[in-house]
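Support request, please re-run this one:
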Amino acid sequence: MFQNQTFTSRYFNGVSAVPEEGTVLVHGQTVQFNSFDTNHVINLSQFTEFTRTHKGCKLTLLPDETKESPVLEIFCSKEDAKLFEKIWIQNKKSQSHSNALFYSIREMNPIVLGLLSLIVVSIVGFFYWKGLELVTNFIPLSMDKSFGDSVQLKMDSQFQKCDSKATDRFFSEALKKIVPKDSKHQFDVTVIESPIPNAFALSNGKIYFFSGLLNESESQEEVLGVLAHEIAHVERRHHMRNLVKAGGTSLAISLVIGPGLGNMEFLETFTELGSTILVLKFSRDFETEADKFSIEYLKSQNISTEGLLSFFQRMESLENGEEPSEENVPAIKTKEEDFTAKQITDFLSTHPATQERMKTLESLIQKGKKGTIKKVVSDTIWKEVQTVCLDFKNSESK
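Re-run finished. Output below.
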């Protein structure tokens, strides 16, 4: 505690930019500023902010942001500045319970404070994300259909369909077997012309199969496995859950960083990157969940569960740049095939690592019955399904 100690100082009155040079007499919790024509006696607790400087410390009197606050600068050693701050904090803590908590935190070691902050943020974040999951339960299924319908209009206008009687028959029979009996969704499958071996579903139950997947599939069960996976995306409302989490992520980051970023473009970029990374993780979680439920759907109907695993085993070979066996190599390689391999790599970049995914699938398949039904249509119809769009393209070129 200071007892009648004097320090060189200067006082800014909040009106003039020119400070008054003088001295400060410190006695206990009171400071008395004296200059040629000014005398101020102020209790340390009256100052709203305390800042240590390289020359000593600075005390700000008023919190009012509408006008310049009077400021008292005291020139002293680092040790004296620390003691000034300690006395000031003790005074502030005695004013109220909220002040006691706030200034106790301020006194904490920065490393300890950082660790505590990290723990608090982690706990709050955990419950925040869990809360976002619950939000979807309050969104009616009609919203899923509405979003899906709007995307479907764009899809149908941009892609060339090449459905056939064979594909209609195959997917009609497959949907009857795989879709859960208590489903509240209406499913429909369309084949679109594209060499990419992929499929995706919209939130309204519309499922698109790229012809490349059908052309390159080795069995009906592979396509059934992929179909079950896409049905699971819709049944588990992954589209809406992903949308809610994406919006929640953007909102959380915006609240932390705050609006009015001005020219700090790097923060805006960070916000976008953070949202993208988190949404990508959600997507991977949903893919794994879809794998799990697709196996359940297939097992419940005694349909073979090996197809989805077989599909990803071949995707992994293409992802790693491995050549297919000679018996499966077409006589002529085209640029389109090279393009397909690249698209597979791009596709897998937003999905779980193939090895990881196969391990999960293998584990799921081993539990319970594996299923024995491998066909839902005759070999003749399947042959037509497998070559869909190839005949379509040939007829288009004539």
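Residues 270 and 296 are 39 Å apart (CA to CA). DSSP finds 14 helices and ten strands in the chain.
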